Amino acid sequence: MRAAVVSKGEFTVEDLPNLVPGPGQVLIDVTRCGICGSDLHARLHCDEMADLAAATGYDRFMRSDQRIVMGHEFTGEIVEYGPATRRRWKPGTPVVALPILRSRHQPELTGLSAEAPGGYAEQVVVQESMTFPVPNGLSPEHAALTEPMAVAWHAVRKSRITKGQTAFVIGCGPIGLAVIAMLKAAGVHTVIASDFSPRRRELAGRCGADVVVDPSVESPWAATPKKPRITGASDVLNLGFDAMERLRRIPNFPWWYLFRVMHSLDRGPSGPIVFECVGVPGIIDQILTAAPPLTRVMVVGVCMQQDAFHPATAINKEIELRFVLGYDPGEFRDTLHMIADGKVDPSPLITGTVGLFGIETAFTTLTSPDHHAKILIDPHSNRLTP
């Protein structure tokens, strides 16, 4: 099997022993695999990431001195089954799978663990229970984006955004673009996207953003097409006065029951939903400072450095801060079908394709935001540049 192997930050394309699926596992021929931003970081900073993963309960993350086949955004076709499988699909069936294996109850992150080689290769092993057939003749290019789009869908779902709330997407790299597409698929009426890169702003518009802002010229918070009801703490307090004055006009009305119903349903005045998709120190504090009261901030960008913000700012505005990671199998399956059914279009994210020998160039190219968003790998292609 031919694969791209990384060790000490250097890629080499090698012939490796053929993979053998274990109990409950399936071998697939890889047709496409996406390059993820976490791959870019893991290539050079995997030891830091491994230390962090170990501190949070996962001690199998790749290390720089290991030989790793990366790649966790893949699709392929069924080749053969391991023991103790149900053999649900015929050989040649196109599938996608969650990038995780389990052996003796030990989870292994595919493409980020030495024990689970990833999709920068001609073949990859997946868990049958975490595998899904690709419906509606969906192309490999689009099927391979199931994984990153599922990350975005998880963030949108966890945000509990309503169609009438305004969404701000700060940072329009691949994950920000995916969030924009998923917000529009969810029917959100107003999505405001912000990025310094002209290329990323262009892609944000193609993904469905209603307003696209260059933050060096205009504040995203001032770009909303409709004036928000709540812009400061005084607005929140005045809402309380207005509500009580109206309720007190009703004779013998137990107004406090209305508040109890609102509390039980978690309903009440609310601000916009902000998706932080940058992942560098200082961004969270900037958002807390600029965002209006009662905002919910979804932290989707992965910041690997220590960060700092002013809790009192968030407290005074009663801002809700949520952190999200990954997706569950149901979200992954639903994302696949949203793409296959045409409810969401991931094509604007795809900006290039390379073969295994082009991975080094693709990684270098992706360090700049001015040209590419998502580069796919076709392990059977000889293309060297995206």
Automatic annotation (TrEMBL):
Coiled-coil residue spans: none
Matching SUPFAM superfamilies: GroES-like, NAD(P)-binding Rossmann-fold domains
Xref: InterPro entries: ADH-like_C, ADH-like_N, ER, GroES-like_sf, NAD(P)-bd_dom_sf
Key words, A-Z: Oxidoreductase
Annotated protein name in UniProt: Zinc-binding dehydrogenase
Lineage: Bacteria, Bacillati, Actinomycetota, Actinomycetes, Mycobacteriales
Highest taxon in the source lineage: Bacteria
Domain Enoyl reductase (ER): 4-377
Provenance organism: Nocardia terrae
